[in-house]
Amino acid sequence: MRKSAVLCSVLLFTFMLLSFGTVHAESTFIVADSLIDPLNGKVVSRPLVEIQGERIVAVTTGGEPPGNAKVIDLGSATILPGLADLHTHLTFGPSDFGYKGLAVSTTDQAVHGVANARKTLMAGFTIARNLGAKGYSDVSVRDAIEEGVIPGPRLQVSGQMLGSTGGHCDNNRLPVEYDVTNGGVADGPWAVRQKVRENRKYGADVTKFCATGGTLSKGTNPGVRQYTFEEMQAIVDESHTLGMPVAAHAHGTEGILFAIKAGVDSIEHSSLIDEEGLKLAKKNGTFLSINAYTPTYMVENGEAMGMLPESVEKARKLAEKRLQNYRTAIAAGARIVFGSDSATYPHGDNAKQFSVYVDLGMLPLEAIQSATTVAAESLGTVGDTGAVAAGYYADIIAVEGDPLKDISVLENVTFVMKGGRVYKSPE
Ligand SMILES: [Zn+2]
Predict the structure, then answer these.
(1) Which of 119, 208, 418, 424 is catalytic?
(2) Is the pTM of this model over 0.85?
């Protein structure tokens, strides 16, 4: 064949491939009664969502899908973008606290993570951040989901939590002769940098570290700072250099301030945040992840769940003040993201937190935004998740009723689509 003839055949072949692609790219259409659009803060009635592959290609209103198209008719349901939970612990559960937790291995955690990832997805959470797991069990769960081996939300994971010796992210339940130290423990600026690098090496997307004590650890005080400013700065600098955002577990006022000043991306729990902390978080664009469902839940169920008596007592002491501060943070217009701290309550009940957010002063739409648009800003997934709009992943859920009138309807998700694939359908 002459050169030009070869070129012609190549062009023709390319053209055929392209047209084959366009003509046969099959669209699926979703129709429903209404769509909550958190991006524009409005409700769209009779939405028609066109999906090709894993993405949404068009969202129109009032139209009819083409005659022979594949249609998912959700009838009287309200559709919304898939929800996000920015603080989960998929690899363990409510029965793994106290001394019982000492018997849980890294492989046990990976197996539990498989089951809990499924529960979380079925509850309408199509994206989640896992903050703290034994070893890299959460990396394995994330990868298996991405490879399509198991169902679950899109995941960003931290691997081992960084923490100081004897701190909240260490394990203080056994005496010295057992020589038990959590994998993420590191002291001093260079050691914490090394630990961040190690987490990155083994697949972590995000850094989680403990900036204060906590309720569930033995012998720590939630109000007391852990790590020096220098150590926090080193964690943030190293993580950011490697492209990893930083989430700081912080209950106490000073730990919160230090962490925000060190440049963390989110404060987890934010329990004893004061006016200065709120102002600084706003100024620096720090997200506050508030787990408002668990304070009361832990006080009521902690003992039955096998938590250490001191943990239940710490939770009790903290609960009221914490909820008051959350109310103040909401009123002050803080950038609040939905983080539930799953595992401290049964997996799959994540959406129960929405009602608490509304009780604490959020509008239902704001509560939904905390788990969609604001969450996407925090996760760095704007344009991919948090909205039902052209170009976004086809991560769509449905509920019966109007969540803007009764936010608790989000606790009963009837339909879940992630990346164009249906995982749950109305019965
Ligand atoms: Zn947590």
Answers:
(1) 208
(2) yes
pLDDT in tens, 86-126: 999 999 998 888 899 999 999 999 999 999 999 999 999 99
Q: Which two tokens stand for residue 316?
A: 């009790």
Say how many Å lie between the CA of residue 359 and the centre of ligand 1.
Answer: 22
Query: In a 3-state reduction of DSSP, which class is residue 260?
Result: helix
Distance 89 CA to ligand 1 centre (A): 7
List the one residue out of 306, 298, 302 whose CA is nearest residue 101. Answer: 306
Token pair for 71: 């249609």
Residues 154-212: tens digit of each pLDDT: 999 999 999 999 999 999 999 999 999 999 999 999 999 999 999 999 999 999 999 99
* Cα 341 off chain centre by: 9
Catalytic residue among 85, 170, 265, 341: 341
Q: Active site includes 265?
A: no
- Cα(88) to ligand 1 centroid in Å equals 7
In Å, how far are 263, 351, 368 from 281, measured between CA atoms? 10, 25, 21
Annotation marks residue 85 as catalytic = no
CA of 168 to the centre of ligand 1 (A): 11
Beta strand 78-81 with 396-399 is antiparallel
